[in-house]
Design brief:
This protein has one domain (2-258): Deoxyribonuclease I, Chain A, CATH 3.60.10.10. The strands form 3 sheets. Strands 3-4-2-1-14-13 form a 6-stranded mixed β-sheet. The radius of gyration is 17 Å and the shape is globular. The longest helix is centred in the middle third of the chain and has 20 residues, at 120-139. The protein has 259 residues and is an alpha+beta fold. The protein is built from 5 helices and 14 strands.
């Protein structure tokens, strides 16, 4: 089973990019973030014509997540823990595999948290606490679990081109990284770090200041695996070439193959 994650940064602006990616890489499951549309304006017909079932948790203009799957899905929308949170940042699906089992997959768009010093950073940390609590419950199910998405977290110095330049950013603050480690310490594994210790493996390049041609990137898109999913991990790839497309997203897809 091939599972990919991609912050598409407006699915309607990048529908052709999306369809080419689906045709080229043929993921069984694709988690999308920052789709920036409601369910009724998602390009459902085009994606279904490409052979995918579509589950959307949308929001007008901002945020929004989706899961595309070649297989049927049992879908849950929204992250538990705060009934007053109206931001569309979490969708989860139970998807059958080829051997009579299931894989549970979530598409996550974790809050950015900037500017630090405003209400946005406490919201980020509180959202991470909710994710930690939910992940703890999911892990008790002892299923193959993939928590995929744009975490807006730079885990380590090797995940950023210039650590000093990001020292005061919400993505790299010690408290942010500590919350991420708490999530991992539940028993989850960063799929990329299970296969490579290399520095300079980035998933995001800003549109400004020549970040892409100068390779001034960061790694903030992650797939976190339960032990049952990790046992099946065969490969992790960052589809860096997508950043070189015309009018690309500032993020690129990351994909894993599970045997």
């Amino acid at each position: 089973m091939r599972i990919a994650t991609w912050n598409v940064n407006s699915v309607r602006q990048r529908t052709e990019h999306l369809l080419r990616y689906l045709a080229d890489k043929q993921p069984d499951v694709l988690c999308l973030q920052e789709i920036k549309c409601l369910e009724e304006t998602f390009p459902r017909l085009e994606v279904e014509s490409a052979g995918y079932n579509v589950a959307v948790h949308g929001q007008k203009t901002f945020n929004g997540v989706a899961i595309l799957s070649k297989r049927p899905m049992e879908v849950t929308r929204g992250l538990p823990g705060d009934d007053e949170d109206t931001q569309s940042r979490y969708i989860e699906a139970l998807i059958p595999d080829d051997h009579g089992g299931v894989v549970r997959v979530a598409s996550i768009y974790l809050p950015n948290g900037n500017p630090v010093g405003t209400e946005k950073y406490p919201y980020k940390l509180a959202w991470m606490d909710r994710l930690i609590a939910h992940a703890r419950n999911l892990l008790t199910l002892e299923e193959p679990l993939v928590l995929a998405g744009d975490y807006n977290v730079i885990p380590e110095n090797r995940d950023v081109h210039d650590p000093a330049a990001w020292a005061g950013d919400a993505l790299f603050l010690p408290e942010t990284r500590a919350k991420f480690r708490t999530l991992l310490n539940l028993g989850l594994t960063d799929a990329l770090r299970a296969t490579s210790d290399d520095a300079g493996l980035y998933t995001f390049w800003d549109y400004q200041a020549g970040a892409w041609p100068r390779n001034k990137g960061i790694r903030i898109d992650h797939l976190l695996l339960s032990p049952q999913a990790l046992d099946r991990l065969e490969r992790v790839e960052i589809d860096k070439d997508m950043r070189a497309e015309e009018k690309p997203s500032d993020h690129v897809p990351v994909r894993i193959d599970l045997k």
